[in-house]
Amino acid sequence: EATSLSSDSLQYDMMTLEMQRLDHNCQTLDDRIKELALTAEDATIGRMRAQILDVARAEDKPAKPKKALVLAMTLVLGLMMGSGSALAADWMDQRLRSVEEIRITLGAPVLGLIPHMKSKRGAIACGQAVALEPMSETAEAYRTIRTAIYFGTPDGESKKILITSPAPGDGKSTMASNLAIAMAQAGQRVVLLDCDFRRPTQHKVFELKSEIGLSSVVAGTARVEEAVQHSPAIEGLDILPCGPIPP
After folding, report:
1. Strands 237-240 and 229-230, how do they pair?
2. Distance in Å from the first CA to the final CA of the chain
3. Are the C-beta atoms of residues 190 and 184 closer than 8 Å to each other?
4. Which pLDDT band holds residue 7 (cuts at 50, 70, 90)?
5. What distance in Å separates the CA atoms of residue 137 and residue 115, rounded to the nearest whole number?
6. Is the pLDDT of residue 240 over 60?
7. pLDDT digit string (tens) for 188-224?
8. Regarding predicted confidence, which is higher, 139 or 121?
9. Residues 6+ apart with CB under 8 A from 243
10. How far apart are CA 124 and CA 177, in angstroms?
11. Count of other CB atoms within 10 angstroms of residue 98
């Protein structure tokens, strides 16, 4: 009888455990079903609330790059850089560009302004502009300087004029020959000395011989009377060319 009771109790315990396991599984299954139901309901509600706001279509223009904006920024940046470069170049340029700048900087009077002559015209055309083109603006400018020199120097006190410049190619030879011609045309006796021992030009301007000249006189191989040559076209103008270029 004791054995029979023990067997019934064991079976009861096993059935209880099985029921608990089944109840747990059912609870788990029920929870999962509820989750799936909620998910399905949410999906259904989402589909019901979804609506088309705008139809997607391809753009006619690319999103990037924005050419108008890029061009505008490039234009502004280019103007800024160009203006800055121009201001920097003007600030670094120390050349004198006006009569007032020359007067203020050097503290010296300005006798006149000479129009620019193209070097392609040749040495003779540039050097004898006063004689070859007497009615030109260039000839009038040289005559104006001649008059300014006459009024600026007392009679008999100044008979020598030195024409020079700080750099080659500034027009010293052209200035000297034309001013000498202008003074000779005014009735003055003029002797033009070519003291440029690097690039002498006066013998080319007046088409003279250069075998004897100032260098010969300085070296003692010739007398001044032998070296001075008369201008064939300008009365009252004598030229002392440079002569042989010394080593």
Report:
1. antiparallel
2. 153
3. yes
4. low
5. 8
6. yes
7. 899 999 999 888 999 999 989 888 999 999 999 999 9
8. 139
9. 200, 210, 211, 212, 213, 214, 215, 216, 217, 222, 227
10. 10
11. 10
191: CB partners within 8 A, 6+ apart: 228, 238, 239, 240
Let me know if 69 is exposed, middle or buried by CB neighbors in 10 A (0-12, 13-18, 19+). Answer: exposed
- Burial category of 171 from C-beta neighbours within 10 Å (exposed 0-12, middle 13-18, buried 19 and up): middle
- What is the distance between the alpha carbons of residues 205 and 229, in angstroms, rounded to a whole number? 13
For residue 123 the two structure tokens come to 């040495």
Contact present, 212 and 227 (Cβ < 8 Å): yes
**β-bridge partners, 238:** 191, 230
Closest listed residue to residue 202, CA positions, set 232, 234, 173: 173
Please give the DSSP secondary-structure letter assigned to residue 203.
Answer: H
- The letter for the amino acid at 22 is L
Residue type, 135: M
Q: E strands, the chain, where?
A: 190-193, 229-230, 237-240
Residue-wise over 219-239: b if at least 16 C-beta within 10 A, else e? eeebeeeebbbebeebebbbb
Query: Of 179, 174, 93, 86, which is closest to residue 141 (Cα–Cα)?
Result: 179
Residue type, 25: N
Burial per residue of 123-159, b for 16 or more beta-carbon CB atoms within 10 angstroms, e otherwise? bebbbbbbbeeeeeebbebbbebbeebeeeeeeeeee
Using the structure block, give the residue that is written with the tokens 């121009």: 86
